[in-house]
C-alpha cells in the first residue's frame, strides 16, 4: 500500500473529506493539536508566500520540522527530474512533500512513482488546489452554513483558477444547493460543465440571491498581455462593489482566496467590510493544513 | 490597545529604553533566557545577512519559531500591499514581523494599521535602525562607560545612515556628554541639527578627545556613482588609521555596525585591533534582540 | 587549541576517519542519536539541494538548529569577506559553518583564521567533498564489503570531480585493493598520480573485474561548451549500460553521488536496478553527517 496523498478533491474519499473539514473546525475552535514526529519539505515552483507559510506554520503547530527548497536557487539547474528529487527526499527521511507547480499533471504522475513520501498538492497549474477548497468549506461550516443551504456564486477568472476547479469538484459532493459561475467570456470554462452548476455572462444575474460570493483574483501571470482587461472596465463589469453587495441579503458572505487585487476584482470597502471572510480564510488555512497533516500521517479515525 | 512595536528610538518610552539595554547586558552576563511561545516572520526587502540572522538567532534562544519571506521570491509579484501581507501574517497566528525596507516611512504607516502584530524596524530607509543603536548602547554600558562620560564621534556617511539617525535620537535621551559628527560635505546631514551635537568637516578635529569613535560604512547602494569617492582619497580624509587612533587616549573605543569596508573607512589593523568593539557589537546584537522580543511580548516589569 | 574542522579527507586523522564511518553505520543500524545543543549555518555559494538538505536534516535529527544564508540574496553584495562573515557568525554564537564554494582553497585559508567556529567542507571547487567520500565508505561498510576486498572503478569526469578527489584520498588510507580511473582524455586527471591507482582510457578495460563501479556526473557547470560531448556519444563510450553491467559479477555494486544525468553517464535501467546503491548513498548521507556533527562537537571517544 502506498502512502496517502492529497492530490485533489476528486482523489479524496468521503471519509477523508469529512475528517479534514471537521478537524479544521475543531482546531479553530481550540481543540488541542497532536504532536506529530514527521518532516515536511516545501517545494514551490511558483512564487507563493501565503500558502507556503501557511503549511509551514501548520507543521510548526504540530511539532513537525519544515525544510524549504527554493527552486530558483536549487539543483534543478543540474537537470534532476522531480521523480528523482522525490526519491532523494524520501531517502533522507522526509515524510511529506508540499508541491506547487505550473504543470497541471506533474504531481499526479509523481504520485504513481513515489512509495513512502506523502504528497500534498499546493497548487498544480489550473487543475487543483485542494487545500484551499477544503479550508473554504471549513470556514463556511464554522459559520454554521450547511452545504444544503449554500447558494454560491464564483466570479472572475474561472478558467485560469485552480481554486475554482477544486471548488467545482468539492461542492457537488458536499451537496451544495446551487453553484453559479460568472466572468468575462475569455475567463469562463469550456462548456460541457458540471451538473447543478450554471454559467452566467452577467455578474448581477449570477450573484442575485446568492448567500456566498467568491471573488477570484485575475491570474495576471497566466493571461497574456493582449487578453488582459483594463482594470476599471473589469471592475465595472465583474468587480464586487459596495453597490452590488448592497443588493444582496445583509448577511451575505464574501470570500476571496487572496492575494486581493484591490479595486480590480473587489473594492477595498467590501474587502475590509463586515461581510468579508478573507482573513477568516487565512486563519482557517492554518487549521485546515493541520487537519491535512493529521489525516495524511495519522490516518482516519 | 494595539500591540507594542519597536519602530524607532523616538517611539520608545523611557522605561522601554532602559529595560532593553539593561536586559541585553544581563543576557550577555549569563542571565537565563525566558521561554517565549511566539512566532516571528523576517521580511527583509533589502539584502541582509547579519541582521536577519541575529534576529533569527535571538528568537531561537527564546524558543520562538522563525519564518523567512524572501521578497525576491515571494508573492510581492502578485501585487499585494504590505498592509495586506501584515494582516495575512497576523491571521496565520504570527506574533512579530521584523521588517527591513528601503522606504523611510512605510513601517510607521503600517503601525497605524496592524492590530495584534508586533512590528520591529530592522532598518527603514535612512530614517531608523533602532535595534542597532540599542545594542551599541548596551555594548558601552557593559564596558562600564556611562552616557554622562561619553564623548562620541560618528564619522563617515552620516546622511545616508539609519544607524546614525537612531544614535542621534538615542544619546541625547540617555544624557551623553558630547556627540560630534564628521564626514564629507555630501554625506553630512542638513543643518538645523540636534542640541548638544556638533558637526565637523574635519575628522581630526571631530575625534580629538573622543573616547568612542563610531565609523560608518559608506552606503554604496544609496549613493549614485558620481557622488562616490575614490577609496584611497576617502581613507586619507575620513578613514580611521592606526596613526589617527594613536592620537587618542589608549583606552579609546572603536565601533562599526558592520559589514566593514576594510581600508575604506577603517584600516584592517584598527578593525582587528584591541580598541575595536566590532565583534562585541555583533555578540551583543543577539542579546539586545532577545531583550527586544522580551519587551515586545512579555511587557515591562 | 582551535576548533575541530572537516576540511578534507587528508586533514582527518585515522581515529576521526574510523569514528565517522563507524558511527554512520551505527546510526543507519538504529543507534540512538545524541542530543547536541548547537547551531549550524549553511552557506552554499553554489546551488545545491541535496547536500544542504542532508546537513539540515542531520542537524535536525540531533536537535541542532540550522540557519540558511542564500548568498544570492545576502550581504555578500556589501563586499564583506568570508573571513569577516565567519567571525560575525561566531560572535552570534553559531557553532558550525557548512560551506560550499567554487574556490578550491578558500575554506582551507579560512580554517587558518577562525577560532571557535567548526568548519565543514560541503564541496570546495574540484578539490574536496569529504562528507560524500565518507558516506560512500559507510555504504560499502554497511554492505559488508571490506576495503581489502574492494576493486573500485571510478568512471567519468574525474578531473572536475571533487567527489573523485576525496575518494582518491580516502581509499588508499583505508587499504583498498585496487582503484581504477577511466574517462575521456579531457576529463582525466593530470598524470603523476597516486600509487595503487591505475588510469584507463577505455571503460570496459577499467570496469573488468571491479566489484564496485562509481559513475560520476558530468560537471556541465565546470566544462565550457566546446569541451562538452554529445550525450549519445558519451553514453556509448563512458555510460554504464545494462549490457556493460551484465559483463560484471552479478553482485557488483553501482554508485553515483547524484544528481544523475539519466542516459548520459548511466542508463535508467541501471540507475533504478538492483545493483544500484544510489538511494542508499542518500540515506547514509544523513547518518554520515550526523556522525560528522558528533565528531566535530562531542570529540572522539
Order of helices and strands of chain A: HEHEHEHEHEHEEHEHHEHH
Tell me what portion of residues of chain A adopts beta-strand conformation. 5-15%
Total DSSP helices of chain A: 11
- Contiguous low-pLDDT stretches of chain A (5 residues minimum) are none
Outline the structure in words.
3 copies of one chain form a homotrimer. Chain A has 301 residues and is α/β, with parallel strands linked by helices. Chain A has 2 domains: 14-129 and 285-298, Aspartate/ornithine carbamoyltransferase (Rossmann fold), CATH 3.40.50.1370; 144-276, 3-Layer(aba) Sandwich (Rossmann fold). Helix content of chain A is 37%, strand content 15%. Chain A is built from 11 helices and 9 strands. The first copy, chain A, has helices spanning 14-28, 50-61, 82-91, 106-111, 130-142, 162-174, 203-207, 231-238, 242-246, 268-271, 278-298, and strands at 39-44, 65-69, 96-101, 118-124, 151-155, 178-182, 197-200, 212-215, 253-255. In chain A, the strands form 2 sheets. The first copy, chain A, has a 5-stranded parallel beta sheet with strand order 7-6-5-8-9. Chain A has a 4-stranded parallel beta sheet with strand order 2-1-3-4, sandwiched between helices. In chain A, strand 3, helix 4 and strand 4 form a beta-alpha-beta unit. In chain A, helix 1 (14-28) packs across helix 5 (130-142), helix 1 (14-28) crosses helix 11 (278-298) and helix 5 packs across helix 6 (162-174). The longest helix of chain A is centred in the C-terminal third of the chain and has 21 residues, at 278-298. Chain A is globular and about 55 Å long. Chain A starts with 13 loop residues before the first helix and ends with a helix. The relative contact order of chain A is 0.17. The model of chain A has no long low-confidence stretch (mean pLDDT 92). The A-B interface holds A 47-50, 53-54, 56-57, 60-61, 70, 72, 217, 220-221, 258-262, 279-280, 282-283, 285-286 and B 39, 41, 65, 67, 69-70, 73-81, 84-85, 87-89, 91-94.
Amino acid at each position: 500500500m502506498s502512502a496517502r496523498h492529497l492530490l485533489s478533491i476528486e482523489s479524496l474519499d468521503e471519509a477523508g473529506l469529512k475528517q479534514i473539514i471537521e478537524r479544521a473546525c475543531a482546531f479553530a475552535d481550540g481543540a488541542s493539536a497532536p504532536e506529530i514526529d514527521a518532516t515536511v519539505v516545501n517545494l514551490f515552483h511558483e512564487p507563493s508566500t501565503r500558502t507556503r507559510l501557511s503549511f509551514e506554520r501548520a507543521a510548526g503547530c504540530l511539532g513537525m520540522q519544515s525544510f524549504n527548497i527554493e527552486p530558483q536557487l536549487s539543483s534543478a539547474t543540474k537537470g534532476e527530474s522531480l521523480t528523482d528529487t522525490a526519491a532523494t527526499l524520501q531517502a533522507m527521511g522526509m515524510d511529506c512533500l508540499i508541491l506547487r507547480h505550473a504543470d497541471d499533471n506533474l504531481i499526479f504522475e509523481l504520485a504513481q512513482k513515489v512509495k513512502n513520501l506523502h504528497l500534498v498538492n499546493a497548487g498544480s497549474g489550473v487543475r487543483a488546489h485542494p487545500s484551499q477548497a477544503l479550508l473554504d468549506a471549513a470556514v463556511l461550516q464554522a459559520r454554521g452554513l450547511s452545504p444544503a443551504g449554500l447558494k454560491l456564486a464564483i466570479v472572475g477568472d474561472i478558467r485560469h483558477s485552480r481554486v475554482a476547479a477544486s471548488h467545482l469538484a468539492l461542492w457537488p459532493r458536499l451537496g451544495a444547493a446551487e453553484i453559479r459561475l460568472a466572468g468575462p467570456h475569455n475567463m469562463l470554462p469550456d462548456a460541457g460543465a458540471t451538473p447543478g452548476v450554471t454559467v452566467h455572462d452577467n455578474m448581477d444575474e449570477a450573484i442575485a440571491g446568492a448567500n456566498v460570493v467568491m471573488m477570484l483574483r485575475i491570474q495576471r501571470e497566466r493571461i497574456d498581455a493582449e487578453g488582459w482587461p483594463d482594470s476599471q472596465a473589469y471592475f465595472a463589469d465583474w468587480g464586487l462593489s459596495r453597490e452590488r453587495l448592497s443588493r444582496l441579503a445583509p448577511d451575505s458572505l464574501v470570500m476571496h482566496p487572496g492575494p486581493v487585487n484591490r479595486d480590480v476584482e473587489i473594492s477595498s470597502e467590501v474587502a475590509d467590510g463586515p461581510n468579508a471572510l478573507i482573513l477568516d480564510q487565512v486563519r482557517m488555512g492554518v487549521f485546515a493544513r493541520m487537519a491535512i497533516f493529521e489525516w495524511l500521517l495519522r490516518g482516519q479515525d
